[in-house]
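Q: Fold this one first, please.
A: Sequence and structure below.
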Amino acid sequence: MARSTHTVSGDFDLTMDELRVVARYVVGHAEEVLPVFERAVPDDPRPRAAIDAARAFVNGANRTTSQRVAAFDAHRAARSAPSEAARLAARSAGDAASAAYLHPLAQAAQVGHILRACEGPRSFRTGTQ
């Protein structure tokens, strides 16, 4: 993969490569808990599609509407999930897809999808859901 020098500007700058590193981190957490959703709702492919869209970006694809659409779809799947654990897993997948659109602003609200995607897996490991 060729290094990208294109930057995304805000309160600080991120290159596309740096944004991919952030997205890779979030995808890893979302993949960890995806089986929770898939066991609860085996016929709903939306969270898996969100992770696949995020993974494509991580692997060098351009940011496209596919990440945004997949993120919204996974969040819709979360709303209809039968348990809190399944909801968190689907939300993590949606947050992974939306990580491609992280805005480099030094405000916690702007990076909520990064922080939430990692919180769900932590609560599964510690039992603090």
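Q: Good. Now the second chain.
A: Here it is, same layout.
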Amino acid sequence: MTRLRFDDLRQYSDVLRSRHNEAVTVRFVEPRDAEALQNYFRALTTRSRYSRFLGAARELAPSVLEDFIHVGEADRFTVVATMLVDGREIIVGEARYAFDSETTSIEFGLSIDDRWQGRGIGKALLKNIECRAASFGAEHLFGDTLRSNDAMIALARKAGYAFTNSPGDWKLTRFQKDIQKQINVGPQEIPCASWRLAAVSPSAMSSLAV
């Protein structure tokens, strides 16, 4: 069984490219990011926050923020997409995902800072999440979003996700993808660090522990 090394989270960072060839670093969140992550959510427009949290919220509740900044607890993970602006690292996007070993599926949600939308960052982040999901040996990837969230629906549709009703809530739609059928590359071709490290082990990360 391969385990993430929580004493050195930097090894699981990936550098992606925006549509304008800007460098976007995707890395696991750390406790030091608590204030920056909270400020990121506060800076989202009301509509974007509503879409991300599936309801009204100005910021993360303290208990939720605490969950967000601790990687690996209950097989839940948060990554942030950052860029260097005037020599300072800023968060331009985030994603939260959870692995269910019984169903071999990963549920996720993501957001992009309104000021940085339209640059292909969401597309790159979604692709990276698919890659990270594969490192667990996950077979399915899915998320729920409001039927009014045109941006997320368009992003998922372009990425090849299928749509269905979300169980128990008519206001939501579920987008899902069978990633194992679509991903078939060797370790040397793997574009994200977490998958590349897991690929050296016969058993993918079906269970993680801090």
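Q: Anything worth noting on the second one?
A: DSSP finds six helices and eight strands in the chain.
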